[in-house]
């Protein structure tokens, strides 16, 4: 996997929100035994992205009243056929750091299933899905400080400003 040099990290506030719980498998949807991430991980690994260091679910965070704009993902995988009956999807990944007042930053990825190829479970324009190692102190409504490389993703404006 190619590593990109990140030069300009931008910080912003976010808070934890409830997700659809399909990535982790907690939704109980029988189409995704063990969760969509466990089913997708071998396909991502075959393309050079190993998710073994991350918790097998996403942490959903809202940046409201801001929204985000994709600039240039660190990685993009097109037409990933990860499920026997669901359509192939495109996925992008962005670098992210969870900044903690007491402790070192936690490094992870933003997981971005492209809405134009995603069949269901859409996110609001202010919600990001994070892949992180398990972090004990995080729960619903926890306020966070995150940082992303400006050349990959920009958090700005309000949802109404988003094109």
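^ Assign residues to that structure.
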């Amino acid at each position: 996997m190619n590593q990109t040099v990140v030069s300009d990290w931008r910080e912003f506030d976010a808070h934890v929100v409830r997700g659809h719980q399909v990535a982790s498998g907690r939704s109980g949807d029988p189409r995704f035994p063990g969760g969509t991430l466990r089913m997708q991980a071998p396909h991502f690994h075959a393309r050079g992205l190993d998710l073994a260091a991350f918790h097998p679910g996403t942490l959903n965070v809202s940046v409201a009243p801001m929204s985000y704009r994709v600039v240039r993902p660190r990685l993009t995988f097109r037409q990933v056929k990860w499920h026997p009956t669901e359509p192939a999807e495109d996925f992008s990944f962005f670098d992210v750091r969870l900044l903690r007042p007491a402790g070192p930053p936690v490094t992870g990825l933003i997981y971005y299933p492209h809405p134009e190829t995603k069949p269901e479970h859409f996110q609001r324009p202010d919600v990001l899905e994070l892949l992180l190692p398990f972090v004990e102190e995080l729960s619903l409504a926890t306020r966070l400080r995150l940082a992303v490389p400006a050349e990959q993703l920009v958090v700005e404006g309000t949802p109404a400003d988003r094109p």
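Residues 42 and 50 are 8 Å apart (CA to CA).
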